[in-house]
Specification:
alpha+beta; Helix Hairpins; Porin; four-stranded antiparallel β-sheet; 40% strand
């Protein structure tokens, strides 16, 4: 049932917006709004047959909205599923006598069952392609005298080559709700020498606290592999993993063991202890703190041959592109490396990042990474073996300039065109629905005329709130977008009809669902602009589609100079 609901087209009716109440509205608030709208739309108040028919339709819609929201069980179902949830046959899976909390729990159970069915239908492919580029000839060229002696020309182009490649791919095949098979493989080449391997893992979820995995592998460089991995939650704040393996080769059997203990130190901080025994034995401890705006890692490792200390920090900007800047420091027996970089979202499913690595004795490298859905493309570019300021400068500035140029000339125009296509498709698919909503809104405005006339007379008699003009839709205020056409509708009458005791209150919901309103620009950002008079003084306000609005307010007052 849940799957059917999500696959159906989403209904645009918002009962809360229709009644102009908060989603947390009490029964008294619902009843007051319902009575007000019933007085406006009651069919018996209209003698004209056409108006009477239109009033009857709107009255039934308001009655249905109140009927759903005033019943706790129906309201809980509507909050979770929407209007279609109340119309789906087979509601016996969730008994109507249950409490709203029980209905939500049942919904979550149905969600989990649907996810399990989806798992059985997908392979969850993941892949990585890495291409190593040697560009040291750009900065580490031989002296001209040596080139002349060896017969080389001093004016030739720098020699740039691909010196390594790595390709890996994995797929998951759910066998049952608790068993999964994972098939993975990789191919690597470096300076003309290469190899590959293939692995098969069988994972079983034994309980809510843990799972186990058996791994088999084979390759042309390391020989057959057999491994066993176990994960277990010890407490609600602590878990452990253990991985043991046996590598078979011409030199004999090489066993290995890795264990890790992790614990939640607080809400955002994890601590890890790891011990590894085998060909590269080591002990590692690390602390990872991840918050909404930052990510911090500190690690120390003692081992053979790698002993090091490492610290990294990442700052997350709270913008639409999910931009992150990062820096890290790592020092050990191998030398010292400092890295800094950034990454940003360039489309819905793509993230582009660049990192500059400066180290001794590694030199300077530029690493470019593109994540596209579950695929990763990695391009490490080695620029120089020395610490040259020119290499650091070009590695930092070059990618930034290139990205800004591509962003302005390619990515933004492409995303803008794609967005326009999606909006056009959305308009076409909802054209009939919008025409129906427009007809209902026009009918509602006709039915409001008599009530609005009385409200205006009452407000004028006490110098109260008079709505002079009100528009709803897309306004074009940016000079760079003057070529676009504003799409707005006049909602002066519907707003005046909502005035009560010289006050107008709109809740935090899309205003397209208010009586007398409809959506004039589907899929686009909308606003409400109101010009009103209170106590003989002009006021004006512009608010967003889902923003709450309360008038009159002193801050809306228009100065005499303007």
């Amino acid at each position: 049932m849940a799957a059917a609901l999500e696959e159906d087209e989403i209904d645009n009716d918002d009962y809360y917006s229709l009644l102009n109440v908060r989603r947390e509205a009490t029964q008294d608030e619902l009843k007051a709004s319902y009575r007000c709208l019933c007085m406006l739309y009651h069919p018996d108040k209209h003698r004209d047959p056409e108006l009477k028919s239109q009033a009857e339709q709107l009255f039934n819609l308001v009655h249905r909205a109140y009927e759903v929201l005033s019943d706790p069980q129906s309201r809980a179902i509507y909050d979770i599923y929407g209007k279609r949830g109340l119309e789906v046959e087979g509601w016996e899976v969730v008994e109507r006598k249950r409490t709203p909390v029980e209905i939500r729990e049942e919904y979550e159970r149905l969600q989990r069952e649907r996810e399990e069915r989806r798992l059985q239908q997908r392979t969850n492919p993941k892949g990585t392609i890495s291409v190593g580029i040697d560009a040291t000839d750009l900065f580490d060229r031989y002296e001209e005298d040596y080139e002349e002696i060896s017969g080389g020309g001093s004016g030739g182009l720098p020699h740039i080559e691909i010196n390594r490649m790595h390709i890996s791919q994995s797929i998951e095949a759910p066998l049952t709700t608790s068993d999964t098979a994972i098939l993975s493989g990789s191919l690597s080449t470096h300076n003309g020498n290469g190899g590959g391997n293939i692995n098969l893992a069988l994972r079983r979820v034994t309980s809510a606290k843990g799972w186990g995995e058996v791994e088999f592998g084979a390759g042309d460089t390391h020989g057959p592999l057999f491994g066993l991995k176990i994960f277990r939650n010890l407490t609600s704040r602590c878990f452990t993993t253990a991985h043991c393996g046996m590598q078979f080769s011409s030199r004999g059997i090489r066993p290995g063991l890795t264990t890790m203990l992790a614990r939640h130190l607080d809400k955002n901080t994890m601590g890890y202890l790891q011990w590894r025994w085998g060909t590269q034995s080591s002990m590692n401890t690390s602390i990872v703190r991840d918050t909404k705006s930052s990510h911090l890692t500190f690690a120390v490792q003692l081992g053979i041959p790698h002993t090091f200390i490492m610290m990294s920090y990442q700052y997350k900007f709270q913008d639409d592109d999910q931009t992150k800047i990062k820096g890290s420091f790592k020092s050990g027996f191998f030398g010292t490396v400092v890295e800094y970089g950034a990454e940003t979202k360039i489309s819905r499913h793509s993230v582009l990042g660049a990192t500059v690595s400066v180290g001794v004795p590694q030199g300077v490298s530029l690493k470019i990474k593109l994540n596209r859905a579950s695929q990763t493309y990695f391009f490490p570019i080695h620029l120089t073996d020395q610490l040259l300021p020119s290499a650091v400068f070009y590695a930092t500035v070059g990618p930034l300039v290139f990205y800004l140029a591509i962003q302005r000339l390619v990515i933004r125009p492409y995303l803008r065109a794609q967005q326009e296509q999606e909006l056009e498709k959305q308009r076409e698919s909802s054209a009939s629905d919008i025409a129906k909503k427009k007809q209902e809104a026009e009918a509602a405005v006709l039915l409001m005329q008599e009530s609005v006339r009385r409200i205006i007379e009452a407000e004028e008699s006490r110098m109260g709130l008079i709505i002079l003009n009100a528009w709803y839709g897309k306004f074009v205020t940016d000079n760079s977008r003057k070529h676009e056409r504003a799409r707005v509708i006049d909602v002066t009458v519907p707003l005046q009809c909502l005035v009560k005791d010289s006050k107008l209150v709109l809740t935090e919901a899309s205003k397209a669902g208010l009586p007398g309103f409809y959506d004039p620009c589907v899929g686009e950002e909308k606003s409400l602009k109101v010009l009103y008079q209170f106590r003989g003084v002009m006021h004006q306000v512009l608010c967003g589609d889902t923003e709450a609005l309360r008038i009159p307010k002193q801050s809306h007052r228009i100065d005499n100079d303007s």
